[in-house]
Prior knowledge:
about 30% helix, 6-stranded mixed β-sheet, 6 helices, EC 3.5.1.2, about 240 residues, Rossmann fold, globular, EC 6.3.5.13, alpha/beta, binds glutamine
Amino acid sequence: MTKGTLNxxxxxxxxxxxxxxxxxxxxxxxxxxxxxxxxxxxxxxxxDDFPDDVDLIIGGGGQDSGQLVIQQDLQAIAPRxxxxxxxxxxxxxxxxxxxxxxxxxxxxxxxxxxxxxILDLETHGTNERLIGNVVADSEEFGEIHGYENHxxxxxxxxxxxxxxxxxxxxxxxxxxxxxxARHLNVVASYLHGSLLPKNPAIADFLLRKAAERKFGSFEPxxxxxxxxxxxxxHAGARxx
Length: 240
Ligand code: GLN
């Protein structure tokens, strides 16, 4: 018997889904099943009606060209996304969608792609590409492992806090040591890899917030995360 069903919505699976970001959806689905719940995976692509019944939202990275393709639709669904974020709905956005959850992304050729302003931050394209393995320390989630590949550099405003502080790699930009952003129950990160297989604490945070919002409580099972621990140790020991 299932403890309940959560509707997990993946934003723009065609355009915004690179460097293995799809793995994040698979992890949420599998861990939710292991915890004794049922996952219903929904997709939203440009032009689709936004579904009524959503419990968790997830979105990946994309090339600048993919960001340009989805920008109009993202603005159309922005009021709904803002309302859900304010209501405590958990969201995970990676790289390209992370940038667009901020105020704007000014690409290296000067094109401004407006963001939806859920996160108080802005991104500027540069000629420098930040590529490689990243390790970041986070008070909430412990050590976070992932892989970055971006030329946009993000600067946080006063309305958000960083997800973590890098001990390897660049993260948000090449200057301040911040990686990602946290606000409400939104987790934003530059890290692909994908992020959640190596960072089950973040996956369970998202599932917990979604279950508590829908059912009033989350009753997780005790999961064996030794494979994730092994992957983290290997990833952390690899060069940039
Ligand atoms: N196009 C954006 C950049 O290069 C995002 C890239 C990504 O999602 N990996 O900064």
